[in-house]
């Protein structure tokens, strides 16, 4: 007695004469009916077919779907999407269909679509196609890089929420940038266990107080402790603390200048251009209302970002910022390329983000000796 595979293949062979007739003379309705019969035949026996059998069905499907209506193609996509050994060529054709009703099922569920195929769709199709891909149970970094770059708000949120989606550092960086001003996305990104530490800190620095609190509430205890450490030590990102400096003389000079003629960006720029480091730090502390000890740490750090944040929050011009950068000890980041990079970062930095970080520095507990005190 023939096995089930033999029965299925015999049934497929019996359809060949009918298939030829339909292709030659059949109406769209006849093509659709024949497609349904062949689809059922394939799905019922898929687990028994080898690759040669699957290729035979692939050829048949390819001939039939060229002339059928969207509804029939969508039904085929729905049927083939969960089948692990579905005909690859027809699945790829369905995935590239402009109609999401046709492409959606295979984009979301078909294991026959590798990263190369998904990248092709993600680069060329619209947001509905990208949203379908973003919900897949497995997504590689090459695909998510495109999704978070091209996708709209719904797509990027779905990618961030999909714990089975693998993200490269570039992908995470893009998500963090897009999370500025999108609290929902910020929460989803912040809850991913695979986010790199430095990008997690960047996310927290730009997040609103509400988002920070929500992340704390939803986080596991060990993650919550990490969040608290980051929020409590944001200024620790600026690098190791320099050897103590004596700012007493500079404080007297700057406060006297403030009382005599006023203190503003011009005076700050003059101090910086004259390489009067202590006076520059004291002036920054007064104008930005940030404790002297914190500004001192900002200025001696290897990274320039905290200084850029401080200056952006105070709405200083780039010439003033450049003068301050050039006056920093060891002149970190003052090469031509370093200053170009700093200018680009300064231009991209939003005032609201900078001000949010500076508010944290402003309220950081310090001793009275660390503050710039004005005479009563």
Number of strands: 0
**Termini separation (Å)?**
106 Å
| Overall shape | elongated
Helix percentage:
55-70%
Q: Mind describing the biggest β-sheet?
A: none
Q: Average pLDDT, to the nearest integer?
A: 82
In terms of structural class, how would the helical and strand content be classed?
Answer: mainly alpha
- The DSSP helix count reads 24
| Element pattern in H and E | HHHHHHHHHHHHHHHHHHHHHHHH
How would you portray this structure in words?
With 376 residues, the chain is an all-alpha fold. The termini are far apart. α5 (70-80) runs parallel beside α7 (100-109) and α9 (127-134) runs parallel beside α11. The model is unreliable at 235-242 and 365-376 (pLDDT under 50). The radius of gyration is 31 Å and the shape is elongated. It is built from 24 helices and no strands.
Summarize it.
The chain has 376 residues and is mainly alpha-helical. It has helices at 4-14, 16-25, 28-45, 51-65, 70-80, 88-95, 100-109, 115-124, 127-134, 141-150, 153-161, 169-179, 183-190, 197-206, 209-218, 221-232, 248-261, 265-273, 277-288, 292-300, 305-313, 318-326, 336-348, 351-362.
Element layout with pairings:
Elements: H1 4-14, H2 16-25, H3 28-45, H4 51-65, H5 70-80, H6 88-95, H7 100-109, H8 115-124, H9 127-134, H10 141-150, H11 153-161, H12 169-179, H13 183-190, H14 197-206, H15 209-218, H16 221-232, H17 248-261, H18 265-273, H19 277-288, H20 292-300, H21 305-313, H22 318-326, H23 336-348, H24 351-362
Helix pairs in contact: 1-3, 3-4, 3-5, 5-7, 6-7, 7-9, 8-10, 9-11, 10-12, 11-13, 12-13, 12-14, 13-15, 15-16, 17-19, 18-19, 18-22, 19-20, 21-24
